[in-house]
Amino acid sequence: MIEISSLCKRYGSFTAVRSLDLVVPSGELFGFLGPNGAGKTTTMRMIAGILQPTAGSVRIAGHDLRVDPLAAKKALGFIPDRPFIYEKLTGIEFLRFSAGLYGEQGPEVEKRGQELLALFDLEAWRDELVESYSHGMRQKLIIASAFVHRPAVIVVDEPMVGLDPKSSKILKDLFREYTRRGHTVMMSTHTLEIAEGMCDRIGIMQRGELVACGTMDELRRTSGEDDALEDIFLRLTGDHVARELIEVLDA
């Protein structure tokens, strides 16, 4: 699971994340939403150990990221929104490299890597250099690398970017099965239909703060309307946008 307590990130006088408290339990697919600049990516990078928080703590599968960073990071797979990969490695070499970062190697890694490449239709490209991969293929390889060491927690930023419909469906099914087996997925996305259809609970960030969190039914009860997630999201983060648009068009 993911446990966040009083998490804060400041850049000089600017506060990107304000005293965030959140628990994402085992077996849950949690959707993390917010407009650009709300603090989502900063939060996810702190969870992944890429950014150091100004204050507060993060625990991954029971391991405090500040006290025992190696154990915490070993329990986590991180899928960024942009697939940065060593281009002079082949697909299978990149998966071996990724597994090696977590101290795993040998026949089990080879088998696991082959299964993941096959799952995302990359088997025929396993021995081709990554520099020859399309953007979508690189995204699929990054996703495969996050699963190769069998982490307890997956943190993913915009997972569907660059994926074709078949790969998107495979990834959705993979996330559902992953959480069904007791693991945790925290997913940031701007595609509200995906969040509404997939996630067990949804948290909405605005100006560095968690302004709403709960199941769709709980969010609807809080808003007092039987709305779609898009309406709830806009009401919490910027319902003035529609009014401004009308004013512009009427001007």
Explained architecture:
It is a single chain. The chain has 251 residues and is an alpha/beta fold. The chain has a domain at 2-75 and 151-250: P-loop containing nucleotide triphosphate hydrolases (Rossmann fold, 3-Layer(aba) Sandwich). Helices cover 41% and strands 24% of the residues. The protein has 10 helices and 10 strands. The protein has helices at 40-47, 69-74, 91-101, 107-119, 135-147, 165-180, 192-198, 216-223, 229-237, 240-250, and strands at 2-11, 14-24, 29-33, 55-60, 63-64, 76-79, 153-157, 184-188, 201-206, 209-214. A 6-stranded mixed beta sheet has the order 6-7-8-3-9-10, sandwiched between helices. A 4-stranded antiparallel beta sheet has the order 2-1-4-5. Helix 6 links the parallel strand 7 and strand 8 (184-188). Helix 3 runs parallel beside helix 5 (135-147). It starts with a strand and ends with a helix. The model has no long low-confidence stretch (mean pLDDT 90). It comes from Gemmatimonas groenlandica. One of its GO terms (molecular function) is ATP hydrolysis activity. Pfam families: ABC_tran.
The major β-sheet equals: 6 strands, mixed
Question: How helical, in percent, are the residues?
Answer: 40-55%
* Rg over alpha carbons: 19 Å
CATH topology heading of the domain at 2-75 and 151-250: Rossmann fold
N-to-C SSE string, H for helix and E for strand: EEEHEEHEHHHEHEHEEHHH
N→C terminal distance: 51 Å
In the CATH hierarchy, the architecture of the domain at 2-75 and 151-250 is 3-Layer(aba) Sandwich
Assign the CATH superfamily of the domain at 2-75 and 151-250. Answer: P-loop containing nucleotide triphosphate hydrolases
User: What portion of the residues fall into strands of 2 or more residues?
Assistant: 15-25%
The number of E-state strands comes to 10
Strand order in the largest sheet: 6-7-8-3-9-10
- How would you describe the shape? globular
Secondary-structure-based class equals alpha/beta
List low-pLDDT spans.
Answer: none
Give the overall average pLDDT: 90
Organism: Gemmatimonas groenlandica
Keywords: ATP-binding, Nucleotide-binding, Transport
InterPro entries: AAA+_ATPase (IPR003593), ABC_transporter-like_ATP-bd (IPR003439), ABC_transporter-like_CS (IPR017871), ABC_Transporter_VariousFunc (IPR051782), P-loop_NTPase (IPR027417)
Domain ABC transporter: 2-232
